[in-house]
Design goal:
The protein is of the alpha/beta class. The protein contains 15 helices and 6 strands.
């Protein structure tokens, strides 16, 4: 933990993030640097929020890492303070400025700054596998519950609908191991009609008693998502294709990302295009929608040159990056690549083949290996954040905590050589 603490410039990161000394809970014991240290500690240990607070109360090493002291007779009892700090930091997160701070701090210990490696991966969200039936039923259940709640508050009679019948049919359907296509289609039609009727009934209550009801921003957002789900489900039921498809009413920002892998053809989460410099990864582009990483090679090269202030001479990337635009760009600026040769062989083809082989091997082992390390050991396998901003923060600290563990050995080796 001491070596991990020495790798991060906490004061510079807190200043770049614009963190304040605002009060969180009854005791304001977390400074801006301590808040960053707490997020790093969570990514490093893999604890839940409750476990992290329990260990923080009883482990003096964790307290020293965060720069705080907790009186054993007055421990932290509100484990939600971790979530409050995460939300505060997520609202202020600027990935570009923080990565510039980290890059300038780590640059003296990095080698081969002229080699750029790039690849994309998906950091999956912790959510159930989406189906049309689950999505429709979740929307129906939420809407019916709130209609009942509104009627109870207003003291009026609940409007009649087929909720109980559809509930019994859906329960019977979900228990079956094999489901006929005809029965699935029949139940889906009933659920679409029920959802449409519930929305009409809810709108009727709002028109008549809207002044007496109070809606939270989360309620309004969820309602707009359900309206969009109904439109998409009706279009798909009629056989039309839908773009920007919603797969969860709770995480409405997540989109299906087709990866074409053997074990997972579709993934649900954030797709991130990373660059790697001497084994250290940086986020180049992050999106919850699918994008073609092959068109982002120029941005990767420009980003590395901006971070390291060194001209890129070699590029290692997957075959999806080997399009004509990238070929012309690399040829124009004299950048060697790991792409398979096009056209006639050059005079120094033997040397080029050796360089391509070495670049491909480094990318396959170091860059793709780093994805597995981040997901298995730094809480990025199934991200349990509850909204878009905190999920991005979770990914950011998971990637750079994994980087910091590698930087410990790099700094130690550089110190030994200097001695």
């Amino acid at each position: 933990l001491g070596r991990l603490h020495s790798v991060f410039p906490f004061e510079c990161m807190a200043k770049a993030a614009g963190l304040s000394e605002q009060r969180l809970g009854r005791r304001n014991i977390f400074s801006p640097s301590a808040k960053i240290a707490l997020m790093i500690l969570k990514a490093y240990t893999g604890f839940s929020d409750r476990q992290l607070v329990e260990h923080l109360n009883g482990n003096i090493h964790y307290q020293i890492f965060c720069g705080i002291m907790i009186d054993p007779s007055f421990p932290i009892t509100n484990y939600k303070i971790v979530s409050a700090i995460r939300n505060e930091m997520a609202s202020r997160l600027d990935i570009e400025s923080l990565q510039e701070v980290l890059a300038s701090h780590w640059k003296p210990y990095l080698e081969n700054l002229h080699v750029c490696m790039s690849d994309a991966t998906c950091y999956e969200s912790h959510m159930r596998f989406p189906t049309d039936m689950k999505l429709l039923w979740e929307s129906i259940e939420w809407l019916h519950r709130h209609i009942c709640q509104h009627c109870g508050e207003l003291g009026i009679r609940r409007p009649r609908n087929k909720y109980a019948d559809v509930e019994a049919s859906y329960l019977s359907y979900s228990k079956k191991r094999k489901r006929k296509i005809s029965r699935t289609r029949m139940l889906k039609r009933r659920m679409i009609r029920l959802l449409e009727k519930l929305l009409i009934q809810r709108d009727g209550i709002h028109r008549e008693y809207g002044v007496s009801l109070r809606y939270t921003p989360d309620y309004r957002k969820r309602l707009s998502v359900i309206r969009k789900v109904l439109v998409q489900e009706k279009e798909m039921f009629e056989g039309r294709k839908v773009s920007d498809r919603i797969v969860s009413i709770d995480r409405h920002y997540v989109r299906p990302i087709v990866r074409g892998k053997e074990n997972k053809s579709v993934e649900f989460g954030a797709k991130v295009n990373n660059i790697q410099i001497d084994g250290i990864s940086f986020i180049e582009h992050l999106s919850f929608k699918a994008f073609n990483e092959g068109i982002r090679l120029k941005d990767c090269i420009r980003m590395q040159q901006k971070l390291m202030n060194v001209r890129v001479r070699c590029v290692a990337a997957d075959s999806i990056y080997a399009n004509n635009a990238n070929w012309k760009f690399c040829t124009k600026y004299g950048i060697s690549t790991s792409f398979v040769r096009k056209g006639r062989a050059a005079k120094d083809e033997q040397l080029r083949r050796v360089l391509r082989s070495e670049l491909s091997r480094e990318r396959a082992t170091r860059l793709e290996g780093s994805f597995g390390t981040q997901k298995q050991h730094y809480s990025l396998s199934r991200i349990k954040a509850r909204n878009r901003k905190t999920e991005i923060l979770w990914i950011f600290f998971g990637i750079h905590t994994a980087n910091a563990v590698l930087m410990i050995d790099k700094i130690r080796n550089r110190t030994v050589k200097a001695v």
